[in-house]
From TrEMBL:
It comes from Herminiimonas contaminans. Its main location: membrane. This is Arsenic resistance protein. The chain crosses the membrane at residues 12-33, 39-58, 70-92, 98-120, 127-147, 167-186, 198-219, 231-251. It holds the Pfam family SBF. The keyword rRNA-binding does not apply. Keywords: Cell membrane, Membrane, Transmembrane, Transmembrane helix, Transport. It is a multi-pass membrane protein. Signal peptide: none annotated. It is found in: Cell membrane. InterPro entries: Arsenical-R_Acr3, BilAc:Na_symport/Acr3, Na+/solute_symporter_sf.
Length: 318
């Protein structure tokens, strides 16, 4: 079973791109696929549950002991990266909805497949894995503050509190709570361990399923969102180049060794796009623009990861 999981993780980029192609062909050949929109939230809830199940919530204390690494990780993701995002958004974008969507996706550090890519890129993936609960908690606390700082009073025109809280509760808080319960069950029961092991195979297929459903839902409406996607693509490319350099610089300034520094570079570059998607969908008038620009960021990022696992792996070599 562990071998299957390893194979899925190592081939996840190919799986995700295959999912995108399948979804695109389906949306073009089968009319009325916008009805798939109703399946987005259930698919997201399951994907987030199995994703959170891989986050070692019981190891939260262990991550807190790595003080220098944690300090550099938090400074990179919640001070330096927001400054970079604010600069890029201010330079590239004028439309408030686009600014909101890009900020949602670029201000949230990844908590799932970044660990796999970090491992492939010769980074200290164990440190990054232990830190994922802190990254998840911190981004949920900091996102509202960042949006308020960048958008000011305008943010109230786009985010209605009730649907946002509903999305956060049922698509993030509840899956996170169930994942924590499952982890405790697995720790105390052989049956729980077995169930958890089987669910451990699900994150990559579940993520591929979400990509398929979102693209099938959005593609028929993409005509109205295509201009928006074209506007954000240069920003995503600039971010993909600059973010890992920022993370590496902070880590080296903190005196971390090469493998730990690579982990922070990967974390700085890799975003939590599909975890943030349910919050974006709770914004009135989000479809099709916000799902389209979030999926666009995912595709740019997956291509970038193929470069990172070769380039970042060489950083710090003597």
């Amino acid at each position: 079973m562990e071998n299957i999981r390893s194979q899925l993780e190592e081939k996840q980029v190919a799986i995700y791109f295959a999912a995108v192609v399948i979804a695109a062909i389906t949306a073009l050949l089968i009319p009325g696929t916008t009805a798939a929109e109703s399946a987005i939230n259930p698919a997201l809830a399951f994907m987030l549950f199995v994703t959170f199940l891989q986050v070692p919530l019981v190891k939260l204390g262990q991550a807190l002991k790595q003080l220098r690494f944690m300090a550099a990780l938090l400074i990179a993701n919640f001070i330096v990266i927001p400054l970079l995002v604010f600069a890029l958004v201010g330079f590239f974008l004028e439309d408030t909805m686009l600014r909101l969507g890009v900020m949602l996706v670029l201000l949230a550090p990844c908590i799932d497949y970044v660990v796999t890519f970090a491992h492939l890129g010769r980074a200290d993936a164990r440190l990054l894995l232990a830190a994922t609960p802190i990254l998840l908690i911190a981004q949920m606390l900091m996102l509202p503050l960042y949006l308020r700082l960048m958008l000011g009073a305008e943010v109230a025109n786009y985010i209605e509190v009730a649907p946002f809280i509903h999305a956060f509760t049922w698509l993030i808080a509840v899956p996170l709570f169930l994942a924590a319960i499952m982890q405790l069950f697995a720790k105390r029961s052989a049956t729980g361990t077995s169930i958890s092991n089987y669910l451990g195979l699900a994150p990559v297929p579940a993520t591929a399923l979400v990509l398929i459903i979102v693209i099938i839902s959005v593609l028929p409406q993409l005509g109205t969102a295509l201009t928006s996607v074209q506007q954000v693509l240069p920003l995503y490319v600039a971010y993909a180049v600059l973010a890992p350099l920022c993370g590496w610089w902070i880590a080296r300034k903190a005196g971390l060794e090469a493998a730990s520094s690579r982990a922070i570079a990967f974390s700085s570059a890799t975003r939590n796009s599909l975890v943030i998607l349910p919050l974006a969908l709770a914004i009135p008038g989000a479809i099709p623009v916000l799902p389209a620009i979030i999926v666009a960021q995912t595709l740019v990022e997956l291509i970038s990861e193929l470069v990172y696992v070769r380039v970042i792996a060489r950083w710090g070599q003597k």
